[in-house]
Amino acid sequence: MSKVNKKIFRYAGLFMITSSFILTFLPTNSYACSCVLPGTPEEELEESMAVFSGKVVKIMDKNKNNLIQSSTDPIAVVLEVEETWKGMDKSEVVVHTERSSASCGYEFSLNKDYIVYANERDGGLHVSLCSRTALLSEADEDIHALGEGEAPKEEVSVDLTNTNNHSVYIYLAVTVVLLVGVYFIIARRSKR
């Protein structure tokens, strides 16, 4: 193999490695959430798996320290249940939502009170921006329409262990190993 071909293979390998890293970290297009307007409080009570009011006591974002984040990353929110209208009898509950409203996630704030309309997804309760979930201070129509709820019957304390998600680092390590392997294969072939 000539010196010119060897150089071409080396530059091609370096180009592939560099391109792979650049393309991995470039932002991609995202699309905004699109919702059908929720029904009346009575209709949404009927359609939802659980309807309750509560105060946010903890928000767990297992991906918050990752280099790569997505608006669809799951967020776990622990609420201290104050009043329940349907499907909730525990004093604390975990609901899940997406990280951002861009992916129809409901953006809860710590120590704020909410009325929550949740549905079942993947074995847990899920809250969407498209539901009637709202700050309790802005839910007068819902509170009036739903009437007086009940206090939760079962006292529980939810324990979310904050485990760090190292999947991004594993992904990067595998990518680096694969790219280095490809580079050495190309370099070895160019020496022949």
UniProtKB/TrEMBL annotation:
Keyword Signal in record: yes
Domain of life: Bacteria
Signal peptide per UniProt: 1-32
Keywords: Membrane, Secreted, Signal, Transmembrane, Transmembrane helix
InterPro entries tied to this protein: TIMP, TIMP-like_OB-fold
Subcellular location: Secreted
Pfam family, one: TIMP
Residue ranges of coiled coil: none
Residue ranges crossing the lipid bilayer per the database entry: 168-186
Keyword Signal: yes
PANTHER family (UniProt xref): METALLOPROTEASE INHIBITOR (PTHR11844), NTR DOMAIN-CONTAINING PROTEIN (PTHR11844:SF25)
Protein name: Tissue inhibitor of metalloproteinase
Lineage, uppermost ranks: Bacteria, Bacillati, Bacillota, Bacilli, Bacillales
